[in-house]
Specification:
The chain has 290 residues and is an alpha/beta fold. It has one domain: Alpha-Beta Barrel (TIM Barrel), CATH 3.20.20.190. The chain is 33% helix and 17% strand. The chain is built from twelve helices and eleven strands. Strands 1-2-6-7-8-9-10-11 form an eight-stranded parallel β-barrel, surrounded by five helices. β10, α12 and β11 form a beta-alpha-beta unit.
Length: 290
Amino acid sequence: MLCIVLIILLILMLTYLAAIMPNLRQDMKTSGLLDVRYAHRGLFSNETDVPENSMRAFRKAKDAGYGIETDVQLSKDGTAVLFHDFTLARIARNDRNEPVAGKVSDYTLEELESFHLLNSEEKIPLFQDFLDLIDGSVPLIIELKIENSDTKLEVCSAADQMLRQYKGLYCIESFNPRGVQWYRLNHPEVIRGQLSDLFHKEDPDHYSILMFACENMLFNFLTRPDFIAYDVNYPCNASRALCRHLYHNTAVCWTVKSEEQLAEAQKHFDAFIFDSFVPKAGPKTKGNQC
């Protein structure tokens, strides 16, 4: 009886390790993507006239030599724009300076262009205008914003159409494993990453079996990500740590908000997305912790 239990446990363990196995290629580490730190949504301050995901924030990050992490989603008429939240109210304002109701996908490009970002004159940028601005000067992390209800994954093909013409260094990532899988199937040479978080702590009201699978990398057998991008506050998630230490997968963290947090994150991660401060120059250090 004990023998059967041990065999079952062994099978379960091997199945788990197979499920969380990321891509074993080392392209992320040799690509140059790890040579910089990444400004989260540009080098922004929402209390100033340089709000997040604005062209001014991107220009500041570019001029300072930081990589840039930004978010792509589609307007109602299928145009790729840069905006983080699916809903507009937190950041977008109308001509009366009131928060804009609804989602990005509820409005056409012409309608979105009538809004401004917080208390600035900045507009919601076009993805193509952003790519033209950066023009290969710094590396990019492009997050694909995909709602669970989106079955056609149009944002993947729309973004990819522009990125195929882009000559600079970039990678893609998404919280939604279907977006990462889309790149694996349709454009496998592009470096792809799985975004995740400890959802049972960060979003307990909406926690589900799918979120459990996502936070523990159980869809990696479908997506085979080149890197895992995880909440910096939870470095010791077992699946994330195994991906880094057992499979030597690149570990990216988001979002570092101080020099002290950066110093701690360097023990657990290989690449760093930051906001709320400007990192001091200095060598990266790596530890052997989880």
